[in-house]
Amino acid sequence: MQVKEILDNIECSRAGNGPLPAAVVTGPSRTCFELCAWFHDAIYVPGLDNNEKASQQLWMSFCEDAAGSIDPELRDDVSTIILATENHVSSRTVYPKDQYPTLNAFLDLDLLILASPATRYQEYADGIRQEYEPVVGGPSVFAEQRSKFLSAVCSGDKAMFTLCGPDAEARARNNMEMEFKHLQQQASH
Question: Which PANTHER family is this protein grouped with (predicted)?
Fold first, then answer.
């Protein structure tokens, strides 16, 4: 589902009515965005801490199988972006937006679900819970770990978004704060 949302946001942005400026997602960067959308979570096992590295290795294997038909710069850009999705906030420190605009724009697209309308965000949060509760040991452990994650992200002063703007940032923080409060209420019952 997330791949479709990212691809839809790329197309809407290209048409001038999406979350990113059209100029960011056109030309050669369009191919990079689309490949990142398909490969950044190609290997995804809930609870595994090396999904991004495994996805990046799959991408590199794909490039090898393509026998030189993929431009080396594109190969390296996609590889770097896939690895950067492991930790969006710290990646923005390592890869400043003025030097890595495509990387930062893709990180925005990857996190855009956090800035969704409240009902869509709730669907996302429910999906995360359903995926991770069995992996981490049940509802109370999930609530504790997810609360820690949400608290850390929301308390940070670093922006989650670089190109989507302050409105997306405010919506994302509001959604995560509401989820945090909901988890705290569940834990107290």
Answer: HD PHOSPHOHYDROLASE FAMILY PROTEIN-RELATED, PTHR21174
